[in-house]
Amino acid sequence: MRYQALITAVLAMLSLAGLTQAENDNTDSGNALDVMRASGEGYRTAQPGQPIRFPQDHLAHPDYRIEWWYLTANLTDAEGQSYGVHWTLFRTALRPGADPEGWTSNQMWMAHSAIHTSTGHHYEERFARGGIGQAGVGLTDAGQFDAWLDDWQLLGTADAPVPGRLVTTVGDITIQLDWQADLPWVLHGDNGFSQKSGQGQGSYYYSQPRLQITGEVVIDGTPVAVSGDGWLDREWSSQPLAADQQGWDWFSLQFNDGTSLMAFHLRQDNAAPYVRGTWIDARGQARALDEGDLVIEPVEWGDVDVGADDGSRKSLPLQWSIELPGQNARWSIRAQTADSWLATLVPYWEGPVTAEGHSTGVGYLEMTGY
Amino acid sequence: MKTAFNRLLRVVITLLSHYRRHPLQTAFLLTGLVTGVALWSAVQVINAHARASYAEADQVLGAQASHWVRSRSGEGVSVDDYVQLRRLGWRSVYPILEQRLTTIDQGVVNLIATDLIVLPAGEASNSTGLPEGGWMRLVTPPFEAWFPNSLAQQFGLEEGDRLTLNSGRQLPPARIFSREQQGLRVFMDIGAALTVLDQSRLSYLVVSDLSGNAVADLRADLSLLNPQLTLVANQQRLDLTELTQSLHTQLAAMSLLSFAVGLFIVFNAVRFSLASRRHTLTTLRELGVSHRLLLAAIALETLVMSLVGTAGGLGLGYLLSQLLLPSVAATLQNLYGAVLDYNLLLQPVTLVQAWLLTSAGLILALAWPLWRQARQSIQAQRDEPAQWQQDAKARTRMLWGSLLLALLAFGLYFQLNSIAMGFVVLALILFAGAGLLPWTVALVLRAIQRVLPASAWRLNWACGDGLAQLGTLRTALMALLLALTANFGVDSLVDSFRTSLSDWLQQRLAADLFVQSDTLDIDALLAEPGDWLIESHRRNGLTVRWQNRPTQIRGLNTETSDTLALPLAAATDRVSDWFSGNPDVIFANEQVRYLAGIELGDTVQLPVQGQSVAFKIVGFYHDYGNPTYQFYLPYERVANLWPQAGEQGLGLWLSDDGDALARAETALVGAGARPGDWTRREDILAISLRVFDRTFALTAAINALTFTVAGIALLASLLAIHQQRLPSYAHWRSLGVSGREWLLIVGLPLGIGLLVTWLLSIPLGTLLAGLLIYDLNVLSFGWTMPLIWRFEPALTLFWLTLGVAGFTFTVSAIQVRLRLPQALKHLGEDTA
Fold first, then answer.
1. Which domain holds residue A285?
2. Is A132 on the interface with B (CB under 8 A)?
3. Model confidence pLDDT, tens digit, residues A31-83
4. Domains of chain B: which residue ranges?
């Protein structure tokens, strides 16, 4: 679940859009989250009991407000140098109703491309309107899954994004990754309906937690072969937020024993965090983790350079503890580098992490709302 | 040291106390100072602002623009090609739609549209560049059209109003808001604009940043993608600076003229203030204040006054520049396509420059009266009649001076080769005329005296008094002469230009309908047109670079009636070769002749597919309003030489049938044109003249302001004269001179002075107009036209002068009436 993505997308729209709600709500006109908390009237809403269908659901769902295709990867080169890659494509409907296509399309796209290298964290952000072909998700003439914005492209070999290839850039760095997977798609929550609050808000959410990736990163004109594990998320919704939720901490972890864990930690006003997750065994069998199955706690806070003009830094939890009491398992999750802040339109922290404890592994952590 | 300073301070305070006792005089001195400085600094601010805007011409709507991607045929760029470029990784490419739209009332409005979210980084994410509800409202039906305030005012639009176009379409609801570099244009989202205007193609693409190999790479990609697309470097910055240079020189010259008028006021005011303090000054000298100390005190006073005046002048100038800016912006946009930002920035450099020049001017204006004052002995200062003799001497000196200036102007005129020099000649003529004025007025007064019978003693007295007043009044009259001359000259220029332009347009716009459409299938339209059509003229063309400037090449049908009647300003005997399609002859606009220095019979080399082809110039045609070079060739010749040349419009002559227009419109729509793609002849004429009037609104504004400054000068002079002469008036009254007699004695010579001033302004103004039309205009724009002399502007100025003079005289007469009892009382005390 990538709430960060969602809020980033919507906030991005809003920052550009100014606040359409502002005139109706003078008391809280500055709070962009209001739109997230709006009823989603006019859009379809995510509800339990609706089966996920493949391959159709890999494509866009324009009648839902927000949607994303989200790839993270922990890679290493021949010399053991590690790389973290994160690429996302967000779709937002600007208004409900059928998409008129063309210039008046009600669809809007945003993408982030980021990489951690030995020289640090590099990222780029792009926007495009729907309807004119500058960005979108669909099938190519040859029937391949295709998600793109400008020359950034996630192209499936067939009608699904896996196996597939990503071609992207971050400034002058070019990245090309190819992947395949042996495990099936993992449906989170209740057969793909992932609840996000006690009041019933939720989204459709499934992942491919074990992408086997090989590829090439070209830095300063020098190609470097890389390989490792990746994680691909698919999620869409129309009204995902409860009124009292302000921030998210999200984990995707791949352990060396072949098991994987998705876990999220929604910080709420005047209430304990809303914590859910999915345990995936080495054969790809998933088990939803409900309240009590999962304990997530920040352990150590560190200063993060957020690119502020005045040089001020933010304090973020860079070390976490995750415990599955039922499995008697506990991990310490540590950020590989504090330098993972994206000072994008809506800023957030997203970077590679290392897991130690019950088993060892790597993964990605995303923190928003700090 | 301290004592000396204390003495200086005491003297200064004594001197300044005069202003406290005479607030009206103080007000006029300051008004003179402030208005004189204001107009000059206003134009200065605008010029600096315009130049700064040109420096931003490598940007479009706030984003960098190093290159353009344009279609060779001029039909615009398809959305698919644009998206393909983005998908090839050319992220720095963003789309622009620019349109000149005609409203239902035949107003013209320029539209610019882009996709804000793809503007290069820093811009797209900059939410501060958006009004409330910003981007979302811009892209969501019913969309929004952002009008800069002055444009909204021009069309009488309030927020939410919709502008109706002549095609019947409506622009989205107006929002009063302006983006960076929007200029006097309506801004819309590009998707909204294409939808609302029912268009499919983009005007061009802008490439924000392209350097090194990227240029070659993009060229290669373009040729693979669509060979019709071409990459053009943005040279607007250089082009604009060069093209607009003469306009700015003209503006600067006009503002300097008003500054000069302002200096006259200052000169006058200083003289008055010194004269009315003659007794104070003399008393101070008699009390032992040294000559040097007195000079120092006066200099200090001057500094204080200049600082106050300059500060006020700059402040007012800044306000004035904001008022004048829309007019200058309209001129620049209409003539050169230059876009001026609406947020005037007062640059510190401009302030300092303005202050330095103002102070220099003030010191100059002060030097003469101070020098005179300093040279006078105490006795001479007590001796009033000497003043009369001095005035007469000064008049003669001025006469000689002005003759010298005239001679100099005459000599320089024959070496005239630059705009700046043209304005020097112009200034010399103006000042020569101004110098001539007091002598002429004196001549007239004396002549009247001579022919008057001895019995007409009142008239004799009036003339004699007029001669006495002249020394004080002459500066104001000279200022008025400058203003009148400038007004009449510029009016004649604008008048001549408008008449020439109108006649020329009538000839050039011969067809009934003009069609400009990127969707019209002209071949289909003309294949079987039906009997509504008598004749058609299809043009093609393109823009190339020649002599390092953008240059238009146009292909004409040599057999249509409008081409056959093409009015040529100059031609050789080989003109018929052009009409018979001889490949080596060409017509050029006059700009080529006067700005590029090409003569009839000369050969020009034009760039053709990477090579150059030679043409012999066999004719020059008038091309008013066009700042660029232009050449005419036969249609086929252009098509053969430049395959990339695009359609440049279609002229249609309709039959006399009542329904010919309706049938033509049906046929046009049938052949793919869309409503709004064609314009009727009379509408184009009206639009062109409206654009012209708007362009020259600025000159009218500056003229009016100069005239106002002169009016203030006159009022200040009259008030000062009466103030000074109040004791004399008291004497007259005590001698039994009635109010009516006073009016005659004081008013008549003033009337004669004004009449002479006005009369002199007519030949001088004509000379000025001639110089502007035959020399400066040609040097600046390359346009020639005949001077069309009309008496009406002079008559208007006569009434205006009469009005201003009547008003100022009434005000000053009322002052006299109010103060006379007091003066009589003083007189009684003195006598007692």
1. 3-368
2. yes
3. 333 444 455 678 888 889 999 999 999 999 999 988 999 999 999 999 999 99
4. 1-60+241-379, 66-233, 384-509+683-832, 533-654
Length, in residues, of chain B: 832
A94–B contact, CB cutoff 8 A: yes
Residue of A118, A87, A172 lying closest to A339 (CA atoms): A118
List for chain A the helix, strand, coil content (%; round to 5).
10, 55, 40
User: Which residues of chain B neighbour A148 with C-beta distances below 8 Å?
Assistant: 87
Mean pLDDT of the region A191-219:
92
- Mention every residue, 6+ apart, whose C-beta is less than 8 A from residue B358: B37, B40, B41, B306, B309, B310, B313, B314
The distance of A344 to chain B (nearest Cα, Å) reads 9
Residues of B in contact with A95 (CB under 8 A): 140
Inform me whether the pLDDT recorded for A244 exceeds 80: no
Distance CA B106, CA B792 (A): 29
Q: A126 at the B interface (CB within 8 A)?
A: yes
Task: Determine the average pLDDT of the residues in B350-357.
Answer: 71
Cβ separation of A103 and B194 shorter than 8 Å? Answer: yes
Tell me whether B212 touches chain A (CB under 8 Å). Answer: no
Question: Which strand (E) or helix (H) includes residue B692?
Answer: helix B681-695
B610 Cβ neighbours under 8 A, 6+ residues apart: none
Higher-confidence residue of B341 and B486: namely B486
Contacts of A134 in chain B (CB under 8 A): 83, 86-87, 118
Please enumerate in sequence order all residues whose Cβ is within 8 A of that of B206, keeping only pairs 6 or more positions apart, or say none: B60, B63, B65, B67, B68, B69, B93, B94, B95, B96
- Chain A contact probe: residue of B84, B136, B188 with most A CBs at under 10 A: B136
* Cβ pair B136:A22 closer than 8 A: no
What tokens appear for B208 in the block? 């924000």
Better pLDDT: B369 or B291? B291
Average pLDDT estimate for A330-350: 91
Cα radius of gyration (chain B) = 33
Evaluate the omega torsion of the peptide bond into residue B607 and state whether it is cis, within 30 degrees of 0: no
B237 band by pLDDT with thresholds 50, 70 and 90: low
How many domains would you assign to chain A? Answer: 1
CA angle, residues A111, A113, A114, in degrees to nearest 5: 145
Place of tokens 């090409």: B598
Name which of B135, B191, B192 is nearest A18 (Cβ-Cβ).
B135
Q: What is the pLDDT of residues B1-58, one digit of tens each?
A: 677 788 888 888 887 887 787 776 677 677 777 877 787 778 777 777 777 777 666 6
- The residues, any chain, with a CB within 8 Å of residue B21's CB and separated by 6 or more, are none
Q: Inspect the interface and report whether the beta carbons of A129 and B79 lie closer than 8 Å.
A: no
Taking an 8 Å cut-off on Cβ atoms, the answer to whether B136 and A151 are in contact is: no
The verdict on A139 touching B (C-beta cutoff 8 Å) is no
Chain B residues with CB under 8 Å of A94 CB are 136, 139-140
Check which CATH number belongs to the domain holding A285 and give it: 2.40.370.10
* Residues of B whose CB is below 8 A from A147: none
* Cis previous bond, B172, omega within 30: no
pTM over 0.80: no
